[in-house]
Amino acid sequence: MRIVIIIVVVLSLLESACSSSVVDDRPTVVATTTILGDVVREIVGDELNVQVLMPVGVDPHEFSASAGQVAQMESAVLVVANGLGLEESLSSVLDAVMADGVPVLEVGDVVTPRYFENGQPDPHIWFDPERMAVAVRKIADRLAEVDDRSTPADWSSRGDAYAARILDTEAEMKQRFGQIGPERRKLVTSHMAFGYLADRFGFEIVGVVVPGGGTLGETSASALGALSEAIVAEDVPAIFVETTVSPRLSETLAAETGRDVEIVTLYTGSLGAPGSGADTYLGLLLTDTQRIVDALKEGQ
User: Fold this and answer.
1) Low-confidence residues of the chain: pLDDT under 70
2) How far apart are the C-alpha atoms of 237 and 255, rounded to whole Å?
3) pLDDT (tens digit, 9 = 90+) per residue, 270-293?
4) Which of 286, 246, 237 is CA-nearest to residue 265?
5) How do residues 155-195 score in pLDDT, each as one tens digit?
6) In what side-by-side order are the strands of the sheet with 104-106?
7) Quick one: pLDDT at residue 25?
8) How far is residue 21 from each of residues 7, 156, 228, measured CA to CA in Å?
9) What pLDDT score does 218 carry?
10) Closest residue by Cα to residue 122 from 137, 133, 112
11) Which of 114, 122, 275, 289 is such that its CA lies 20 to 30 A from the CA of 201?
């Protein structure tokens, strides 16, 4: 009996050693953000190995790649980035990778962006499902160019299928936002991340805590005072704060109004943790939609 047990243990160890030495020989696609990582995985399925540079919860405006991650990008068949200035600290790395001959697709280049008042493009394109549906098809087209395991028609079909799911999600968002009356469709956010959502679904952005398109800027006491007055004048019931930034300034602003202004957390630059409901791109859209509805609909 003892000999049998020893044999079983040895065989188990051998099996474990063999399985741990299995090399994934699939071509690698690198995505910069967690959102793009999920989008790419939805398109490729198990066909390719998808690696994501940024961990969950990291602000893409602030992220810097490690030496190992740069090497990972250098060996990829395709790097998918957002572009439009979102990955501020990665721009030089992306340029270097492209110079070394690695294909890089910045999805901001394949859609028509909106622009901030300062003339800079708004990088937060994932909050417009229609633009993202276009981007998904372009990603599929580029995958067809770099991978011959599937035919171009197969890649096109994969892109079309996921784009259709994105547009179905847009329809669900419109239905839910229908619970908010026109006079209550007013947003105050911690930074200017929701311009695409506002344009697509009919919201007015009353103001932002940190001006500009990034999260690295600064604000002033006078600007906060003016925004506090606007919140009171427009009867805005909530300030929406991203999960990737500190809520401190927004909490100060809410207190300054002298009213019961709710601080509501939304997922913006990063997916949520597993089980959060926002751990996929489509889940992020619907989770944020419901939180906005719950904060702004009549009777709240």
Assistant:
1) 1-23, 212-219, 299-300
2) 12
3) 999 999 999 999 999 999 999 999
4) 246
5) 999 999 999 999 999 999 999 999 999 999 999 999 899 99
6) 49-52, 28-31, 78-81, 104-106
7) 85
8) 21, 34, 59
9) 62
10) 112
11) 275
205 pairs with which residues across the strands?
187
Query: 81: closest CA among 39, 120, 44?
Result: 39
Amino acid at 204: E
Give the amino acid at 118: N
> What is the value of pTM for the model shown?
0.89
Which residue from 231, 229, 233, 246 is spatially nearest to 190, judged by alpha carbons? 246
Containing 255, the helix (H) or strand (E) segment is helix 248-257
Q: Mind listing the domains of the chain with CATH numbers? A: 28-174 (3.40.50.1980), 180-296 (3.40.50.1980)
- Assigned token pair, 245: 């930034």
156 contacts 140 by C-beta, under 8 angstroms: yes
Radius of gyration of the chain (CA): 22
**Residue type, position 276, single letter:** S
